[in-house]
Here is the input.
Amino acid sequence: MIRRTLAAKLRALAHSFPIVTVTGPRQSGKTTLCRASFPDRPYLSLEAPDVREYAVRDPRGLLGDYSKGAIIDEVQRVPELLSYLQGEVDERPRPGRFILTGSANFALLQSVSQSMAGRTGLLQLLPLSLEEIRRFPKPPADLSRILWQGSYPALYDRRLAPSDWFAAYVGTYVERDVRQILNVANLAQFQAFLRLCAGRSAQLLNASTLGADAGITHNTARAWLSVLEASYLVFRLPPFLANLNKRLVKTPKLHFYDSGLLCYLLGITSPEQLHQHPLRGAIFESWVVTEIIKARANLGLAASLSFYRDRKGLEVDAILERGNQILAVETKSGRTIAADFFTALRSFADAIGAGKPARRVSSMVVYGGGQPQQRSDAAVVPWSKLDDCNWS
Here is the structure.
């Protein structure tokens, strides 16, 4: 087991809030993180049928058994328990009494927002960041291997075969989580929809076209996308919208949180196959954008990310807003720096500089090569140095 970067923020919030809730995808390491951070705290999992039945039938009794506090795992299984936790911590609001984990879904998110407002610190634990992968013995040093293997802890801790692990992960997710959230009659159709989404990662999202290709209605496609988002498999990156004298695209982009899962869904069976794959650039873009989100989530910060695209097709893959400053990030999977890497960045900086009020723009190119450079209009950062960047 390696140290997770989020551990410091988790312990800090436990000194301020009576409850800390850690959400994230299944198998991202939430349970391991919480138990390692609070080794003396009693632990119970609501995945166990007997514990779950106890929580449903006698929530006051269960909380009475753990009046000094506990780690309660998979709390989304009994979301009504949060209402009883509210009364419990209101009576005795000692910081850090309860640590909750959950593979987020609609019921959990709604219950947390309604019952736990002001009572819980909320954190997200995503799969391993590049920085965390390097804490394992003999981490991959090749970009294609990193992208193909992905970032779930089990793949590094237990050195499992990615193809076998992802097959089990997708099957379990569809059979269990999707059925809990949605009444999906045709699970094979949902899996086909998931694979169609993979083919659109790092692209503008058109739910109508996606639904038509999957043989479902526009409304069903939107509902299924929301389930994938609530399960931390995908996210929608919003467009950058500002008062500029340009017509900007207002459609979000679709991204997958994990490049390994993305490669599995695309049928990429080896790192070597990824070298020449037509979607290598899109996979790399999703990976870079997600690494930025992970770095900020591990500090307890909101993503604050968007992308820029004008009607002429000039696009900057990630825009990070930090007060009056903007960091524009372009991603290029190629190993050789080319002049056209900087075209969209210059266009964006000119547009922002001409806006009112003018804002300061820093530019960065993250690429698949290994040589850092400091150009006059942008920093060029190799993929392997991405974890050295300050994203706070």
Observations:
- The longest helix spans residues 162-181.
- The two ends are 26 Å apart (CA to CA).
